[in-house]
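ok posting inputs for the pyridoxal-5'-phosphate job
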Amino acid sequence: MNSIKKTNEFVFQTYLRQGKEFVRGEGATLIDEEGTCYTDFLAGVAVCNLGHCHPAITLAIEKQAKTLVHVSNLFYTAPQADLAATLVEKSFADRVFFSNSGAEANEAAIKLARRYFQLKGNKNRYKIITMEQSFHGRTMATLSATGQDKIKEGFYPLLEGFSHVPFNDIEALKEALDETVCAVMMEPIQGEGGVVPADRAYLAKVRALCDETSTLLIFDEIQTGMGRCGTLFAHELYGITPDIMSLAKALANGIPIGAMLATKEAAKGFDLGSHGSTFGGTPLATAAALEVVKIISDKDFLESVNEKGAYFRQKLIELKEKHDRIIDVRGKGLLLGMEIDNNSKDNGKDKDAGFFVANCFKKGFIINGIQDKILRFAPPLIIEKAEIDRLVAVLDSLF
Ligand SMILES: Cc1ncc(COP(=O)(O)O)c(C=O)c1O
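and the output
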């Protein structure tokens, strides 16, 4: 039985997979059993930001795997200490909690925000406002935080104390913010929601509103962080900082890890025994992440992301000028989205996001579709302009 059949028979059928098995990855290329190459414009959903099997990351994993893989958080290890110190040095934060995934990093952020006010004796201040169309994960708390109804079906009752307001609507947030709210939680650029950036003025007002009401501001940078948007963290583009931030995905370029970062003040919400994780911050994952942070935070590296992002964006805008079916091109850095009109018909055939994803794949390019009408591009940040040109030519031929 081959891997596709085995997976379909023995693994829960919760994912809609493309009928393809990959056996190797190198840079921005994924290779199947026959040796056919695919250029990856998704990077394992914004995870392999340094490309597949980056030599420096492979070396860091190899070295650490031969030395020490796991000891639990009952002891100290150098890679965890060094990663925490580096993340603090490169961000607004003063403390880091390590987890294994994005959902767990957000779970930690939610727990911290609630406990911060509980410890202050403010027991009624436990509600969290998030955004419509947001995505924060699949655990019960993060599902409750998520502003999309579809993925909640069948899981009710969800956790109490979450409400959602329209994104980029400051009046709606103002109205919802009362003395029972402990935190506002949001992605600076909604990823799963369709690559929708927050407006600059809006985000500044969100920060100001949180300051006025002493509400904690949580940024979910799980998808937007780690250089994806041209700065180490996307909020740097907006010139404001949160009180709490969650990271995961690209933090260790594919080795599972999550992190929740907080200011000294917000960090008061967790004390001895208040939160924990068996695997959180293992030497293996943190050694890989340390190398990732070193490479990505380099000024020249980030500059190259900006340059290639602007180049790619311009190419997509040129496509939009050429094809009426393209409604919008948006995003920051190398997290780009192209919205298409999936209602118009061409030769009697619907051209929805699935059509473009499938046909790009046939031509050797991996892209992603959201909500049937948005094409998401999140290539490894080491993607080359020539590869962008080739994808754009394929997209052009499909309209
Ligand atoms: C913004 C955001 N938050 C949270 C998550 C959940 O992360 P994970 O799948 O690692 O639990 C994701 C995953 O796509 C995400 O994009």
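notes: The mean pLDDT is 97. The chain has two domains: 3-53+299-398, 68-296.
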